[in-house]
Amino acid sequence: MRADLADIWVYLSASPLLGLAATLLAYLAAWHLYRRAGANPLLNPVAVAVGLLIVFLLVTGIPYGRYFEGAQFVHFLLGPATVALAVPLYRQSSRLRTLWLPVGVAVLAGACTAALSAAVTARLLGATPVTALSLAPKSVTAPVAMGISERIGGLPSLTAVLVVMTGILGAVLGAKVFDLLRIRDDGIRGVAMGTTSHGIGTARAFQISGEMGAFSGLAMALTALASSLVLPWLMRFAARLI
């Protein structure tokens, strides 16, 4: 048995499949732990899987670039997964047609508030202007957020980390906050989740209900669009504050 495991390790360590296998195994382990804990949001599978992968790379000494040679296959699937959000959106189309104006206004207000409050708060707490600008697009899905960060003078790599942290926090705390505020409507909950916590929050929303997931996916897409158009202008306007 040990010889078989050693042979498998030798094969995988010399193959790009190592990154893919490690990613899938880490997520499966995290998902199992999450279910065994009664779906405790503090054990969010994404956060746990990221932690497991960090430990794995540190222990084995495998460079991140080599790991990503295999993990990029999972990265590629983000595109089809995002497009697949159109299916639950279509199922909610009758309700969306009656709510397009309040949803649009809410998303625009949420995107601007999230960016401006984060940047100004960071500066008040002593962060550098570059750090504050990197923090501004934290509620936008990662590829768009990194592009916005570069355009407004932030650090895209720092923004990517902040985006993941924001998504995980939203997924862990979002539902509890809605319950505390007595917000019961899944459409409203979904819009708030997607506006603030992008893809990771949307995944959590689908675990709660299809309606919440559909509205979260819509809000995530609209937030990316609104932020790419508004944030560069907003950050120039707010330069005196940050």
Please name the defining characteristics of this protein.
242 residues; mainly alpha
Low-confidence stretches: none
The main sheet comes to: none
What is the number of strand segments? 0
Given the helix and strand composition, which structural class is it?
mainly alpha
In short:
The chain has helices at residues 2-13, 17-36, 45-60, 64-76, 78-83, 86-91, 93-124, 129-135, 142-152, 156-180, 186-208, 210-237.
How would you describe what is shown here?
The protein has 12 helices and no strands. By secondary structure, it is an all-alpha fold. The chain has 2 domains: 2-76, no CATH class; 84-237, no CATH class. The longest helix has 32 residues, at 93-124. The radius of gyration is 19 Å and the shape is globular. The chain starts with a helix and ends in a 5-residue tail after the last helix.
Q: How are the elements arranged and paired?
A:
Elements: H1 2-13, H2 17-36, H3 45-60, H4 64-76, H5 78-83, H6 86-91, H7 93-124, H8 129-135, H9 142-152, H10 156-180, H11 186-208, H12 210-237
Helix pairs in contact: 2-3, 2-4, 7-8, 7-11, 7-12, 9-10, 9-12, 10-11, 11-12
